Amino acid sequence: MFAALFKGNKRSVLLKAGVMIAAIALLDWRIVGEIPLGFLYLLPMLAIGFVLSPAEICLFAVLCTLLSEVFDDLRWTLRTGLSRDVLYFVAFLGAGFYVRSVSLSRKAALQHLHEIESQRDARREAEEQLTILIESSPAAIVTTEADGRVLMANEAAHRLLGVPQKELQGRIIYRYLPSLTNVSRYEASQHFRTVMQARGQREDGETFLADICFSTYRTNAGSRLTAMVLDASEEFRTHEVSGLQQLLVGSRIAIGAVSHEIRNVSGAIGVVHQNLAHSGSLNGNKDFEALGNLVVALERIANVNLRQPSDQASVIDLAALLDELKIVVAPSLQEEEITSRWLTEAGLPLVWADRPSLMQVFLNLITNSVRALSKNSDRVLNVTAKYDGTQVVVEFSDNGGGVVRPEDLFRPFQAGAAATGLGLYLSRAFMRSFGGDLRYKPIPDGACFVVHLTPALSTGQE
């Protein structure tokens, strides 16, 4: 019953309090005798304490004090009446302030409880999202204790390690990733956040190459290690096969260049041999006949067909390849204090090329520019890619002083070359193997090499 008096909005509570004050005043007026009923005003003061401010509570306390003094039958004197009124006022004011304090504390507690519930719900939702993320991740994610015992492993971890689902928990991770054993040897106070590549082993004993991103941390229950593991075996195999193919292609072209030189030399020797044979002075000489056989053998070796197959070419996104090139050469350019400027025209068409061979050509051209710029104080390298309407053109230009004898640039085994003189020769051969070309363009105080590429649509490929 009394609880209903304190419920409702401010207007309804004030209305109820007003009705109670009027009823108490009427009752106090109607009852004759020295029976003080002023204490009953505590009830409306308790009600208004929930909805009024401190100043408003003071006004109501004054009102209730006046009504108590006016309608009771007690005689008022300065000595007794003033002290009685003060006690009334303090009692009414204290009741209102007490209820107000209780109300504010209750509201704060409810708000705090609401915040706790909101945080709990947010934490639960975050945990659910994290669980979904971990379980749906294509990368293997494992959490272990300090001794290597697995606490949590997602579905990808079970697939990677060849363990049936839900059976990896409780096992020792060092059996599958032995390199993590070295992490546990360090002090527990040290924390690691790093990446490494190491050998892994599946449940059936098969080994694989693993890229491991791991971190260590401490909890109340002890040290923990969380690792994200990726199988790099396929990438490793692809890289090695690509490297072998690149080596074979380069070797084939290099041998072709050597064969060309041998063919020239053996042709000259053959002419001399024929001239001596026509003179007749060495007829019947066994050494002379053996020399003729050697010339024939050399010509046969030099005529072996070593053409590079072009079946490795495919459609290439040149803009993406140039971005990868920047990543590869950026450290060496910074080390040599070379300012590089890259300008790629927007909307370049796809090109037809062998991706590893094209990357090798670009790297060779930049390496040559770095070597040419080593003697300059102001070092600038410009790389520009554009479409001229028929071909995609990539220009590599520098201010390294230019080339003394441009006519010898693309010849193998040229005199004065930094190494064998095969770099530009092989680069041009690579380009021509998939329909491209490499040319030299002289510029003031520098050199410019122009790579010509065929757009993929013009080759009839989709």
Automatic annotation (TrEMBL):
SMART domains: HATPase_c, PAS. GO terms for cellular component: membrane. Gene3D superfamilies: Histidine kinase-like ATPase, C-terminal domain (3.30.565.10), PAS domain (3.30.450.20). It is found in: Membrane. The chain crosses the membrane at residues 12-32, 38-66, 86-104. It is an enzyme of class 2 (transferase). InterPro entries: BphY/WalK/GraS-like, HATPase_C_sf, HATPase_dom, His_kinase_dom, PAS, PAS-like_dom_sf, PAS_fold, Sig_transdc_His_kin-like_C. It catalyses: ATP + protein L-histidine = ADP + protein N-phospho-L-histidine. SUPFAM superfamilies: ATPase domain of HSP90 chaperone/DNA topoisomerase II/histidine kinase, PYP-like sensor domain (PAS domain). One of its GO terms (molecular function) is protein histidine kinase activity. It is a multi-pass membrane protein. Keywords: ATP-binding, Coiled coil, Kinase, Membrane, Nucleotide-binding, Transferase, Transmembrane, Transmembrane helix, Two-component regulatory system. This is histidine kinase. It comes from Alloacidobacterium dinghuense.
